[in-house]
Amino acid sequence: MALDWIPRAPKDMKKNHQMYDEKYLNADAPPRTTYEKRPLVDPDGNEVEGLYVAWITLDNEKQYNSYTLEMLHATAAAFDKASHDPSVVTVVLTGAGTTAFCTGGNVPEYSEYYVMRPMDAQEYMSVYWRAFDAVWTSPKPFIRCCNGMSVGGGEEIGGVCDLTVASDLAFFSQVGPLHGSTAMGGACQFKPLEMTMQDAMWHAVSCERWSAYKMLRKNYVHSVVPVLKKDGEFIRNPQVITDKYVENGEIVYGEYKTGEEAKEAKAMVKELPRDRSLLDKKCMDIAWTFANMYPQQVAMSFQMIRATKKTAWERTKAESIMWWAANAQAYGEFDMGMSAFNTKRITGATDVDILKLRKMIAEGHPYDEEMFEAVMPKPKK
After folding, report:
1. Does 203 fall in a domain?
2. What is the pTM of this model?
């Protein structure tokens, strides 16, 4: 060829640009984060040779897929690994099983280790930060495959993804203000952008549980997919109103049923088998859509749209890290909340007496060991 005189690297040469350590990835047993490359498939299920969808799974079912420090390290590495693999067209983040996507940080680890270790708490958040950065800088679309409840920090590590596909048994809630924490790891930043400000204020602070269908109504998720089967056919979540939009002037679509209807529906859900095949297929169909578009244009489009979320995150990112250090002191609200939740098998309760806490504060009492003991639930006799 006319240009053979110009030195070029071999065409099959590929340098490794990964930035994160994979030593925590694909541990032998849970709690762990796993990484799997599944072949890209067309809507009919035909595989495309040489192209893949990276499936990253938070695998800690016994603790509702809450993430440990090692899982965070592994998740950041998995995000980075997928981003730098040219054969990967899309990345899917999901949870193990059919019950939980993720319930956030691991409470025993928070309560038993990070309380009274403020500088370690600060370092913990820097690992969390790296996982987010791996998404912000990625040329690949990220899909949250919400296979079950998305609670607390699960809402936040999942919220960094570009699109959310949810099981219709999933529910979404923040729990921080009930348990001594704040949804400052993404929810307070992202929800005002994806919902109205009023909805974000309520959902991030009230700790109210919203169904996947309500979140669809609030423009927070991309699509909702049934996972229950009855007589071999998929059916919608019977606990949620999905067959009408308005009743007596109120929007009811996506609201939970009440009374006897709710009891009957709960019993049905308990008995029926769950099958996430439609959920996973929906994610693969989205990957197929993006795979058939020019990769650089897809990457640029996502980067420009992400910029709004990233700006909101960057405005408070450093403060969030420092908040962890400041809030990790003994006998403070974080210690109360995490310790109460972590000792629920001993006390039978998950919450401190918050009204008593407020009264003691109003009387001028400091946050100290005496206050901590006064408001904490007591061991069962």
Report:
1. yes
2. 0.93
